[in-house]
C-alpha cells in the first residue's frame, strides 16, 4: 500500500469523524432547544450575543413608584372647583397686588427694560 492510499484512508477517517462531530453538535443544540421549550427557559443560540434578557426578567417597579407618592390634592380640588387656589398661590397674588400698587410690579410683556433699549 502506497502513501496515497494511506492519505485516502486518513482523509476518509477524518471526514467520518467531522461528520459525526457535526451530528453530535447538531443533536446537542436540538436537545438544548427542546429543553428550553419544555422548561420555559431562554436559550441564546449564538451564545455571545446580547439580548437584554436580564433587564426584562427584573420585576416592574412602576406600581410601587405610583403607590409611594400620594395623590396631588390640589389637582383633585381643581377638578372639583376650577377656582381653587392654595395658600402659597394666595400669598403670591397678594404680594403681586402690593407691588403693583407701589408701581413696582413686573412690566407688561414687551415693555421691559430690555425692550426699551434702542438698537444701534
Salient structural properties:
120 residues, mainly alpha, 6 helices, elongated
Give an overview in words.
This protein has six helices and no strands. It starts with a helix and ends with a helix. The protein is mainly α and 120 residues long.
Classification by helices and strands: mainly alpha
Total number of beta strands = 0
Distance from N terminus to C terminus (CA atoms, Å) equals 106 Å
CA-atom Rg in angstroms:
39 Å
Q: Helix segment count?
A: 6
What share of the residues lie within helices?
A: 55-70%
- The proportion of strand residues reads under 5%
Average pLDDT across residues? 83
Succession of helices and strands: HHHHHH
Return residue spans where pLDDT drops below 50 for at least 5 consecutive residues. Answer: none
Largest sheet: none
Task: State the shape.
Answer: elongated
Question: Which SSEs are present, and which pair or pack?
Answer:
Layout: H1 3-39, H2 53-57, H3 62-68, H4 73-80, H5 87-102, H6 113-116
Q: What would you say about this model in short?
A:
With 120 residues, the chain is mostly helical.
